[in-house]
Amino acid sequence: MRVNERSAYAGLLLATAVATLGAGSGATQPSATLRGAMQPGTTELPPTVLQLLDDQRVPAITWAIVRDGAIASGARDRALPASAAPSATATFFHAASVTKPVVAVTAMRLARAGRLDLDAPVTRYLREPAFTMLGERGLTTRQLLQHRSGLKDFERLDWLDPGRAASALREAFNDPATLAFEKAPGGDFAYANLNYSLVGLVIENVTGEPFAQSVAKLALQPFGAPGARLSCQDVAPSALAAAHVLSSAGESARSSLLPFNRAHSPSGGLCITATELAAWGARLLACESDDAPLTCAELESMFPRAQERYGLGWYDEPIGAERAIWHDGSDAGYAAALLLVPARRLAIAVMTNFEFASAGVMAKTLAARELGTRYAGKVEFPSRERWPEYAGTYYHAELRCARVTASERGLEVLYQTSDFPYELTRTRLMPKPEWDEGYFIGAFRGKLIWFGDLAEPTRSFLFMSSKKFVREAAGSTRCDGLRG
């Protein structure tokens, strides 16, 4: 999930919380399964990842690393002993937007076979009347894959309604309001799930087969992921990690509204284990072999070019001296990441069952360790020792007062929700280091709190209910009635 997706579903996600987990300090030590030549110990999580898992109250994580054909995997659960932790080889997780590279590979294989022209008007393949306007604007499949369509993202399609079939996606476009251009195609990158939903329909129309069947045949089975599914509805509940969302107390809490319906499949339906996801990435990198499903040149063409933020289903970022290709994803209940370092034949998968887990940061930190360097992110996130610097009183004329305090739980917000007699509510703030320069997040009346501008504590602010609370100057008395 990208930054501009934050508010699109946050209220709904918070409403799905049904049982808050205890914070607990008794997290199990990582368990590990080793294959090939990798040495024991390589699957222990770095201390920074362990700290982040604790700070974010992530219930469970599985991870897998493939390097030069050898695979290692591990798992960790906050509430279970190591012997009962999820299995990196057998426990499925919803991979959310990590689906997008898989869909892009499907499109590339169709292009390789001459069945799909990525630069032809998309209406060559979407001939239904509902899509006529796309052709009029010259929109191409490549622009959809690059998130450069100019289209406004979905607002109405409910991914969580279990009764929606895969056909609901196509039916949604019968509503003229579903498709609207915000700017001309081919312009700046703007992440939108709608783009990959349309690519899913292109794939169906080109192959004449259901989307999930086409992707399995073209992009999953040939790349070593035959067990993956395009919806967690197709996985036995006993094999699926339990989903967790953010509760109003700022903790992780079980969700009862998953798995997602099949209409979500093209933009974020992948359901897979950590080892199979890492193996899929490694097979993608093994492009020199004569039987490679994609050549190295074809694979390279999917990566972002100079000055591009996004390629065909991939981001890129330097880690040390190496170029990493990656995609992360988060949806109600889950967060995941896949990272590749082509020059080192390195593939890393991280799967978690908490929607706001920083899976991408965790994958990059693991990659940095494998490469003998350190990952600090684009902007160094403040250490726990600095968190008390953000404590203080924050004010908004309409919503009144909020106080940020530092405790053993981390940062907390105490906010005033009425005039006298005061109603006070407290919630915990959770670090989220990968968004922009880094934020803390919490929950307020079923909506998210954003606490940001961490570069300078005196300029930090809170966003609650789309309102900006600014930090009160020393000596201000406006919030003297705020107690607790």
Short description:
Helix content is 22%, strand content 24%. With 484 residues, the protein is α+β, with helices and mostly antiparallel strands. Residues 1-42 have low confidence and may be disordered.
Structure explained in plain terms:
By secondary structure, the protein is of the alpha+beta class. 22% of the residues lie in helices and 24% in strands. The chain contains 12 helices and 20 strands. Strands 13-14-15-16-17-18-19-20 form an 8-stranded antiparallel beta barrel. Helix 3 packs parallel to helix 7. The protein is globular. The N terminus is likely disordered.
What is the secondary structure topology, with strand pairs?
Blueprint lengths: L5 H10 L1 E4 L10 E4 L12 H9 L4 E8 L2 E8 L15 E2 L4 H14 L19 H5 L4 H5 L21 H6 L20 H15 L3 H10 L23 E3 L5 E4 L9 H4 L2 E2 L1 H12 L10 H5 L14 E5 L2 E10 L2 E8 L4 E7 L6 H12 L21 E5 L3 E8 L2 E7 L7 E9 L6 E6 L2 E6 L8 E4 L2 E5 L13
Antiparallel strand pairs: 1-7, 2-4, 3-4, 3-12, 5-8, 6-7, 9-10, 10-11, 11-12, 13-14, 13-20, 14-15, 15-16, 16-17, 17-18, 18-19, 19-20
Helix pairs in contact: 3-7, 3-8
Question: Which descriptors apply to this entry?
Answer:
484 residues, alpha+beta, eight-stranded antiparallel barrel, seven-stranded antiparallel beta sheet, 12 helices, 20 strands
Number of helices: 12
Q: Structural class of the helices, strands and pairings? A: alpha+beta
Apparent shape = globular
**Low-pLDDT ranges:** 1-42
Helical percentage? 10-25%
Mean pLDDT: 83
Question: Mind describing the biggest β-sheet?
Answer: 8 strands, antiparallel, barrel
Percent of residues in β-strands: 15-25%
Estimated radius of gyration = 23 Å
Strands side by side in the biggest sheet: 13-14-15-16-17-18-19-20
End-to-end separation? 35 Å
Topology, number of strands: 20
